[in-house]
Amino acid sequence: MISAKMVKDLREKTGAGMMDCKKTLTEANGDMEKAIELLREKGLASAAKKAGRIAAEGIVATYISEDSKVGVALEVNCETDFVAVNESFVEFSNNVAKQIANSDVADVEALLDSKYMSEEKTVRETLTELIAKIGENMNIRRFEKVSVNNGTINSYIHAGGKIGVLVALNCEKENNEVLAPLAKDLAMQVAAVNPLFLDETSVDEEALNKEREIYRVQALNEGKPEKIVEKMVEGRVKKYLKEVCLVDQIWVKNGDYTISKLLAEKSKEVGSPITISKFVRFEKGEGIEKKEENFAEEVQKQMQKK
């Protein structure tokens, strides 16, 4: 009898998929060492050796539903930029983004345990097979799903997946001839300028207080009188907000417009208020500490192993 614990233990030892572990344990009559050997022979256990390697390359993929009401941004990582453009890797990433849009998975773990494109294998098992096939560690790092009832969602991908952006617009009058290109322009704005917040109401109070303290110390270090320091601080806070809040930023395509002015003009054009309900910006590998390898040393290490 193959227990769930045995399958779990084999999976942890090899990194192979759950179904592969179960089938192999059955084939090995419950012999753990024999099962590991069989998985290695099939090339499925090789993923475990790669799991510790840093995956900071990869792509950000986006998917927009046909009615433009649902959008997904997804980051899938690998070790090298060569694999990031591999056809199988890109296809897997795009398929998973589409799958998220058509499902109700709430996090990466649930996604990994869901069936891949309605097939027998899970996303986790498919990823493990891809790792074994290509020979690099890979992982699904994060995703975000956005939806609207009235309005549209559009996306922008920069530099072949280095940056991926979603922008969701709300508008009662669904004039897609205006809304779709507007959402695309705004997505390009988010990619280029990297706003931290949508507007002042969404600014984190803790972050704002931290900025205030920094400006206060700067002003005092500049030798400004105590009585005018607070006015200087608030002035610098206002400038900071214009830089980090999307609706207050200068539009990169036309410096005569702020984003809020652009939205107001387009609202008049369609005859209904247009608002940004949400934006998502993923940059490949942000926050991942990538190990810097000396290429000559790496080649030397490989030669010494032979």
TrEMBL record:
<keyword id="KW-0648">Protein biosynthesis</keyword>
<dbReference type="InterPro" id="IPR014039">
    <property type="entry name" value="Transl_elong_EFTs/EF1B_dimer"/>
</dbReference>
<dbReference type="InterPro" id="IPR036402">
    <property type="entry name" value="EF-Ts_dimer_sf"/>
</dbReference>
<feature type="domain" description="Translation elongation factor EFTs/EF1B dimerisation">
    <location>
        <begin position="71"/>
        <end position="286"/>
    </location>
</feature>
<protein>
    <recommendedName>
        <fullName>Elongation factor Ts</fullName>
    </recommendedName>
</protein>
<comment type="function">
    <text>Associates with the EF-Tu.GDP complex and induces the exchange of GDP to GTP. It remains bound to the aminoacyl-tRNA.EF-Tu.GTP complex up to the GTP hydrolysis stage on the ribosome.</text>
</comment>
<dbReference type="InterPro" id="IPR001816">
    <property type="entry name" value="Transl_elong_EFTs/EF1B"/>
</dbReference>
<dbReference type="InterPro" id="IPR009060">
    <property type="entry name" value="UBA-like_sf"/>
</dbReference>
<dbReference type="GO" id="GO:0003746">
    <property type="term" value="F:translation elongation factor activity"/>
</dbReference>
<keyword id="KW-0963">Cytoplasm</keyword>
<comment type="similarity">
    <text>Belongs to the EF-Ts family.</text>
</comment>
<dbReference type="Pfam" id="PF00889">
    <property type="entry name" value="EF_TS"/>
</dbReference>
<keyword id="KW-0251">Elongation factor</keyword>
<feature type="region of interest" description="Involved in Mg(2+) ion dislocation from EF-Tu">
    <location>
        <begin position="80"/>
        <end position="83"/>
    </location>
</feature>
